[in-house]
Amino acid sequence: xxxxxxxxxxxxxxxxxxxxxxxxxxxxxxxxxxxxxxxxxxxxxxxxxxxxxxxxxxxxxxxxxxxxxxxxxxxxxxxxxxxxxxxxxxxxxxxxxxxxxxxxxxxxxxxxxxxxxxxxxxxxxxxxxxxxxxxxxxxxxxxxxxxxxxxxxxxxxxxxxxxxxxxxxxxxxxxxxxxxxxxxxxxxxxxxxxxxxxxxxxxxxxxxxxxxxxxxxxxxxxxxxxxxxxxxxxxxxxxxxxxxxxxxxxxxxxxxxxxxxxxxxxxxxxxxxxxxxxxxxxxxxxxxxxxxxxxxxxxxxxxxxxxxxxxxxxxxxxxxxxxxxxxxxxxxxxxxxxxxxxxxxxxxxxxxxxxxxxxxxxxxxxxxxxxxxxxxxxxxxxxxxxxxxxxxxxxxxxxxxxxxxxxxxxxxxxxxxxxxxxxxxxxxxxxxxxxxxxxxxxxxxxxx
Length: 448
Hints:
The protein is of the alpha/beta class and about 450 residues long. The protein has helices at about 30-35, 90-100, 110-115, 125-135, 140-150, 150-175, 185-205, 205-215, 230-235, 280-295, 320, 355-370, 385-405, 410-430, 435-440, and strands spanning about 5-10, 15-25, 35, 50-55, 60-70, 80-85, 105, 215-225, 255-260, 265-270, 300-305, 325-330, 345-350. The chain has a 7-stranded mixed β-sheet. Helix 6 (about 150-175) packs antiparallel against helix 7 and helix 13 (about 385-405) packs antiparallel against helix 14.
């Protein structure tokens, strides 16, 4: 595959000021010499004004061409980039011309995959490229940049460096039992394994943080019908997304939108009002509401504060999320009934006037940061694949500790440590990772 020369449009489809068409591979210059009118001297890493021509020499477009010479390029190969006019048709014609001259259409993520295979980045950094593109909040952007800078790779490498000397010592004892070489004392070996286990567990603990940064904290707006849930959603979004009506039961299905609150991405879910209903469609909506509450990261419970507490339909939440509930005393502009005075932490709010919205935003930040999955102050946020690998490593290291405690044969201890090393290597791509490359890079856009 690396012997092919690939080409793709690297900018988003649609009309724009400019578009970028990228070529990478050993035949990049040869293909470019057929498709472009190149200057007599093509200087690497310098922009040149060129013309694209068809097979008859007729002009297709003109723009800037850059040559990145191997290995000093994104992919580690010879790379040509053409920055032309951003029309849909003209950009496609330029790509078609490059394909006609011998390039192959790139698969999704193939440029970044080549960068990984050519040693320009480890696997975690390759994944971070897509995280950077898809970041929807400042915290997600920061986490993606940390990963792109190699933060997770450095952690994994440091863990390997802690384990390898232990494994080497044990295997030396296995290979040369007649020599006066013995494993480190049990206590010292345990200390080394414990240190690596601690690093693995700290990384595993960031997986929930990574999930929220990449996909948003699932924030369910819930309560009885006609208390202002949809109005609150619209106010938080800043536009009319949900239908608002004085008729109870207007919202019959969940509505999702993503916003950013103090750098934290929230996946807001407006739900059907909870009540007893004989309407089949409304009952389905209520069932969906109950499912959303079961998997919520944060619950914003909305009540009509102008009515007494005795008439309110309050939510019963499991202990796992009870400390991530924010109670909103809505319709505060109509006056708050005295019976709500016992709810000291509740937030008075009026969707009509906007009063209390900023207080709610601050409360969301505080609850997510202190009681929720973002509690750990850690610059690294691993994804589900990393988590699975680190969990395998931790499991094998725990098994090695157990074997050591039971004074089992050193061959068993070495086997567990080797498997832990392989699991850590899976994270950064230092072992055979053919089985996961296609899955990872298939999520990329073509041209990246």
